Each structure stands twice: as C-alpha cells, then as structure tokens.
C-alpha cells in the first residue's frame, strides 16, 4: 500500500473527503516526526510505539577498498509493534 492508497482507505473508513484525509495523514506524520526529533516516544495503544534508537560508534570496512573506517554514532527512528497489531498479522 502506498500513500495515496492509504489516503483512499482513510477517506473511505472515516467517511471524509480524500483531501481532508490527506491533510490528516500529513499532520499525523509531522506530529510523529517532530515528537521523535525531540527525543519523545509516540505510543498508539493497540498499534505500537515509535521511538528513537541509538547506534554506538563502531569501526567498519570500506567495501570498495577494504580499508578500515570509523562509523559515527547515530540515532534512528524505530517502531515496536503492539499486541493488537501482532495479533492482526498472525
């Protein structure tokens, strides 16, 4: 499912226009992104939790040259599915 198909599904389920569904989806995604940027967790009960994970600095190898390189520590967005979502998939 891509974004436009998701908007169509939201519009049909909520009985609103596609334009309103698109604005609602965009607003929800911006809210999640801004919350994660602040370092907060976003928990949607029954769906799951979005959170920021941290990767430690490590050494790696350049696949082209084979030389060792240092990889910086980084933060990355992560998602942990809730029980209801897991049950719906299985």
UniProtKB/TrEMBL annotation:
Swiss-Prot/TrEMBL keywords: DNA condensation, DNA-binding
This protein's GO CC annotations: cytosol; DnaA-HU complex; HU-DNA complex
SMART domains: BHL (SM00411)
Gene Ontology process terms (BP): chromosome condensation; DNA replication initiation; DNA-templated transcription
Key word DNA damage present: no
Pfam family, one: Bac_DNA_binding
Assigned protein family: Belongs to the bacterial histone-like protein family.
Functional note: Histone-like DNA-binding protein which is capable of wrapping DNA to stabilize it, and thus to prevent its denaturation under extreme environmental conditions.
Name this protein carries in UniProt: HU family DNA-binding protein
